[in-house]
Amino acid sequence: MASSIFSSIERSGVSNPLIRKLQASRLLLPADLAELEGALTTTFAVPAHQDLARVNELPRDVHILTEGFACRYKVLPDGRRAILAFLLPGDFCDLHCAVLGRMDPAIASITACIIARTSFARINELASNNPRIANALWRATLADEAIAREWLVSMGQRSAGPQLAHLICELHFRLQMIDLAGADGFSFPFTQEELGDALGLSSVHVNRVLHQLREEELISLQGRMLTILDLPRLERFAGFSREYLRSPLPAPQSIPITHGIK
Amino acid sequence: MASSIFSSIERSGVSNPLIRKLQASRLLLPADLAELEGALTTTFAVPAHQDLARVNELPRDVHILTEGFACRYKVLPDGRRAILAFLLPGDFCDLHCAVLGRMDPAIASITACIIARTSFARINELASNNPRIANALWRATLADEAIAREWLVSMGQRSAGPQLAHLICELHFRLQMIDLAGADGFSFPFTQEELGDALGLSSVHVNRVLHQLREEELISLQGRMLTILDLPRLERFAGFSREYLRSPLPAPQSIPITHGIK
DNA sequence: CGAATAGTTGACTAACGTCAATACTAGTGG
DNA sequence: CCACTAGTATTGACGTTAGTCAACTATTCG
Q1: Which residues in chain B have their CB less than 8 angstroms from residue A144's CB?
Q2: CA–C1' distance B42–D30 (Å)?
Q3: CB-contacts to strand D (7 A)
Q4: d(CA B17, CA B69)
Q5: Minimal C-alpha gap between B257 and chain A (Å)
């Protein structure tokens, strides 16, 4: 199963979205970026709706989504599936697993994906020797956590309509950050069942709520392209505040430029 | 468990539960523990049901819960409150906020608490100069994340009964880890409204579900003391697996003992 | 002891799930 | 180009879970 999928399309990736994201964050020096990029040599392609964790059983590798959509999920004993996060280009798939040394939630592609891989040993070496990189990686996992926390708020306190609207706002904002959302809309390749598993709703109910959002002319959805018709109104309806997604610059002392004295 | 190795520290009477936890994890050398403990000099008391974030508006400090129960929460514009995590002794209150440089969710005490404080600058200095400490702190935030993810599963896929049971199992396990849960039961100081805000349920429904758990003789709850009457049955009912709470030892290469070469 | 807070219970309502039938769509091979 | 198929979307009828409102009781605490 595993080998056929990884008819590895090796590419010399200068345009890794993770590197671009980190570059934009201004947390790292050019030299740091080069170090990190040097570790991301191997990339491979995965078809849509493919289980990634099972394909590669080594939890000691770290994967970065480079192109396409994926998700983290967990299946319960009774067969229900919980989608815990949607992964977009530039996101780490399993950095936390590598740090903890445990392959906790599974990863699956949603669309066809391109994924970059490196060994955790390599990442760990970089982080150990360069606190700026360690800090940037740490912050990346914390950004994940902030999104998960907001999902928690959504699931607990928002009814289905606002909850779905909130997810749309989140994806829109995150895709904008990586230049993957135009003014006209963005790629929205999720099935209603996937949305349901992410929101804790049945796919039937997702359908109805989606219908409602279209009827109220908040969004339009044709093919797999979603257009936000009235962003301010959608954000208000969702109770969305982009604050939690912003990556604030750390205070001066949290970037120890003077590292090396020790 | 690792008592003989760290006997020198034990004899010196480590009172801080964070240090005890890290000590038990075997991630750090005695010297590392001493470094960290040296940073936790200031402690202060907070009465029950007190807002902690507002008490200390400086987001550049890091707080560690030393005694008592607290929670992370967020209030929505419409006044609803979402509790995002319960904090137990030894937990960081706001390490992630400090790293990200943003005071995201608020913290409130549930019981009277004792809290240790240190400056983030100090923590950051330790982490920058000592990758073992950086790793341990990173893992601590990831442990948080694992719990949040499991809450997400609970809220999305479990109905109220199993969800509440799951929370009880989680708290029981976490309290056991820090020697705060006896065989006879453990302190359970949450109001039903707090439980509701954490589970995304109304307090009325929490009451009914709690009643049901008692009727089925899974738990008993008197005063603020909860007793688990049949742990295996409760865990089965909740769909609880303690796997996600375990702190696995990292693979050898993730503890670079040889740090200092650079 | 009294006042506030927390817990309990019932009646009713709203949100969401389940089941099932039908329509659409993209990809497939003839 | 068409039919075939499997997955996906849509819609209706109905059941279940959980929310709301409201009254009442039990605790806690000053």
Answers
A1: 145
A2: 31
A3: A 49, 191-193, 203-204, 207-208, 210-211; B 159-161, 200-202, 204-205, 209, 223-224
A4: 13
A5: 10
Contacts of A127 in chain B (CB under 8 A): 131, 134
- Give the pLDDT confidence of A51-110 residue by residue, as tens digits: 886 655 556 789 999 999 999 999 998 889 999 999 999 999 999 988 888 777 889 999
The sheet with strand A61-67 has its strands ordered as: A42-46, A113-119, A61-67
Residue from A73, A100, A144, A245 whose CB has the most chain B CBs within 10 Å, to mutate: A100
Question: Distance, angstroms, CA B165 to C1' C6?
Answer: 21
**Residue B41 pLDDT:** 85
The model's pLDDT over B73-88, given as tens digits with 9 standing for 90+, comes to 999 988 899 999 999 9
Rounded distance between C-alpha atoms, residue B75 and residue B80, angstroms: 6
**C1' (D15) to CA (A188) span, angstroms:** 33
> Which one, of B168, B167, B175, B138, lies nearest residue B150 by Cα?
B167
> How does pLDDT run across A163-203, given as a tens digit for each residue?
999 999 999 999 999 999 987 799 999 999 999 999 999 99
Contact criterion met (CB < 8 Å) for A100 and B250: yes
Residues with CB under 7 A from strand C: A 159-161, 196, 200-202, 204-205, 223; B 49, 191-193, 203-204, 207-208, 210-211
Across chain A, how many H-helices and E-strands are there?
A: 11, 10
Q: Which residue has the tokens 């089965």?
A: B236
Edge-to-edge strand ranges of the sheet holding B106-109: B81-87, B70-75, B106-109
**CA-wise closest residue to A232 among A169, A155, A147:** A169
Classify residue B172 as exposed, middle or buried by CB count within 10 Å of its CB (0-12, 13-18, 19+).
buried
Helix (H) or strand (E) holding B85: strand B81-87
Strands A106-109 and A181-182, by their bridges, are unpaired
Per CB-CB distance under 8 Å, the chain A contacts of B130 are: none
Nucleotides on chain D that have an atom closer than 7 A to a protein CB are 7-13, 17-22, 28
Size of chain A in residues: 262
Overall average pLDDT of the B130-139 stretch: 94
Residues B99 and A250 sit within 8 Å (Cβ to Cβ) = yes
- Alpha-helical regions (H) of chain A: 2-5, 17-25, 30-39, 52-55, 95-100, 120-129, 131-157, 160-177, 192-199, 203-215, 231-238
CA B215, C1' C16: Å apart?
27
Structure tokens that stand for B232 in this block: 């295996």
At a CB cut-off of 8 Å and minimum separation 6, what does A248 contact?
B100, B101, B102
User: How many alpha carbons lie under 13 Å from residue B57 in its C-beta half-sphere?
Assistant: 0
> How far, in Å, CA of A71 to CA of A88, rounded?
9
Cβ atoms of A83 and A72 closer than 8 Å: yes
